[in-house]
Amino acid sequence: MPMASRWLLREVGSRGGMVTPRTHDRPLGPLGPPVRRQRPLRRGWRFGLLVERRYLAQAQPTGLMEALRARGHEVTLVDPQGGPVDVGDDRWLHGLDMVVARGRSWELLCMMAVAETRGVATVNLRAAIAAVHNKAEMGARLAAGRVPTPRTLLAPGARLTAASRIERFPLVLKPVFGDNGRDVRVIRDRAELERLGWSEPLVLAQEFIAGDGHELKLYVIGHDVWAVRRPAMLLADGRADGPPAAPPAGEAVPLRPGERDLALCCKRLFGLELFGLDCIRTPSGTVVIEVNDFPNYGSVPSASERLADFVMKRARATRRRT
């Protein structure tokens, strides 16, 4: 079976069912000139959803896929971790008008680079996803952009206890590359820090920001911003040390003054179009803890339809430029 075929989980057209992926007639080899973009004769568009399997059971991007399908468009689900990635194989891109990605794996980032080099439009851009995948780079951009964010230190794991600049506790420790709360730990005092065994070469130590027991999600689609409040997953006393089996339910709340501008500032800093901010509301203002590409948009009203509207708008704008 061709490698490109193993990547394709299934293709859902306007009539549903299984569709055999088409391949290029030209032989495989080094990346050549951009894919020729011809105006399709079909009524709908063809979208590729480049998605890590762990997200297929979540609301997104399944909801986006169903909304696009309901509008008569074809959707191909592509698994970036379905086999070894042949970096010269671009057959999975054939016929696609746009690639929408959810995930941060190295395989996904590699395939996004192929798509962009071949001239296929992508959401989000590969560079934008990579910038928030690396939490050290994320923190540096937030600080340089004067975004309210906790003080963050980057250090070798074995030398963190010797960092004289660590004065305030509790601390939140995170891996440089991680998501969904993986290996996040709350350290309450220096004695606990000195007992710490950290398995990775580098660690991020972030000041713990106390709130009212809740965290705020700012969800962004293009230039539209929504606020969702939910119980905090990390508490200063160490409870919820790591992610629960499922995130707690949230509720949509009104944006406070400055929060929309805060979200759009992060949009400009990272070049993201579909993203969310993990925040804490404090008496002195809203503090950004992390930036995440293509979140689940929980509690955002009509999220799937709004995502489909945005993706279609981007696709039309891309066609006009080509």
From TrEMBL:
<feature type="domain" description="ATP-grasp">
    <location>
        <begin position="139"/>
        <end position="319"/>
    </location>
</feature>
<dbReference type="Pfam" id="PF08443">
    <property type="entry name" value="RimK"/>
</dbReference>
<dbReference type="GO" id="GO:0018169">
    <property type="term" value="F:ribosomal S6-glutamic acid ligase activity"/>
</dbReference>
<dbReference type="GO" id="GO:0005524">
    <property type="term" value="F:ATP binding"/>
</dbReference>
<keyword id="KW-0547">Nucleotide-binding</keyword>
<dbReference type="GO" id="GO:0046872">
    <property type="term" value="F:metal ion binding"/>
</dbReference>
<keyword id="KW-0067">ATP-binding</keyword>
<dbReference type="InterPro" id="IPR013651">
    <property type="entry name" value="ATP-grasp_RimK-type"/>
</dbReference>
<dbReference type="GO" id="GO:0005737">
    <property type="term" value="C:cytoplasm"/>
</dbReference>
<dbReference type="GO" id="GO:0009432">
    <property type="term" value="P:SOS response"/>
</dbReference>
<protein>
    <submittedName>
        <fullName>ATP-grasp domain-containing protein</fullName>
    </submittedName>
</protein>
<dbReference type="InterPro" id="IPR011761">
    <property type="entry name" value="ATP-grasp"/>
</dbReference>
<feature type="region of interest" description="Disordered">
    <location>
        <begin position="16"/>
        <end position="35"/>
    </location>
</feature>
